[in-house]
From TrEMBL:
<dbReference type="InterPro" id="IPR036322">
    <property type="entry name" value="WD40_repeat_dom_sf"/>
</dbReference>
<protein>
    <submittedName>
        <fullName>WDR64 protein</fullName>
    </submittedName>
</protein>
<dbReference type="InterPro" id="IPR051242">
    <property type="entry name" value="WD-EF-hand_domain"/>
</dbReference>
<dbReference type="InterPro" id="IPR015943">
    <property type="entry name" value="WD40/YVTN_repeat-like_dom_sf"/>
</dbReference>
<keyword id="KW-0677">Repeat</keyword>
Amino acid sequence: ALESIDFKNALEQFQNLVEKMIIQKTKERSGLYTKDDDEIDYNKFYTTTQTLFGPAVKDQNVQAFFRKIMSNPDERPEWTEIFGCFTGKRDGMSSSSKESMVLLVSEKQQITHSVVKRKDLIKGIVKVPLLHFTVTASQRGVITVFSKQRKFFFYYSFYFHQDTAWITGCDFLPNLKYVVAVTESTIILWDYKSKESEGNGFVMKPMKNCLLCVCTVTMADNLARDTILMGDDKGYVYLLTITSDDFIMKQSKSAKASQFKVLDSESFDIPKRKLHDDWVGKVKYFSALKRFGSCSTDNINSFVLDDIKRLEDHLPVKEFSVPKGVNAFTYCGKAKVIVTGG
């Protein structure tokens, strides 16, 4: 209750500050304003806002709010925008109901373990809800599983040594219980449950083109197999199915004894189809739609959404053209819409 009262008082002072700014700007435009000690510039606005709300407001939101007031005082922004929250206008909603909205901030837990070192960066992060953990893969080869058990985080991590190839994406194979990651020239299958400090698993190679992204095709058959989609730098999308038997039957005979065994990619049937005329930026399978999506910066074949069977035949695919291409996309089941970002 005290926090509620304090916030209400702080919000009232903030709105008074905004009113003074609007009056000041209106007088400036009419030529009636004379500068004095009560003038509100950006530094004063920033300091006052930080004093009222503390770390709840971010610098970029304070700057944006101040810029909106100064550029057009007649169309004042909503107070929620100072917290980075933007509300759409709805018919029949009174101003009082807008101001009574509650801002909820979810509880966050910081993981202090550093999974990457200097000059490295995360290239993939995947949440596995059923097993309550998260997988990350860094560009230089650090793959980590964060497991949330009993409200604490445990992590398993290993460093995949490579000569020049960088990791470009990762995902999780729910049936085989392996982490899959792709580099520019190989496919990594890591058994995160292995006790060895450096991990255990398989490396599939060679791959002719540079692999840029990977995702799992979620099926409900619960068999000992998983299917993955991959995209490369030539516009191709690949379809690869792996079974537990493949780990035994298709190992390379020339491979040396090591923790990571080599799988010969030429012994696998890997259908592929050229869907784009530029790099494939992302691939994703939507179980609810029973369709896969792939995107590219290609202006003509920017986004493809179709059945994975289209990767094995030559029938037309549903594709969309977006100026300057598509870099990212996602699907919302509740709204039944797909959103793309260029």
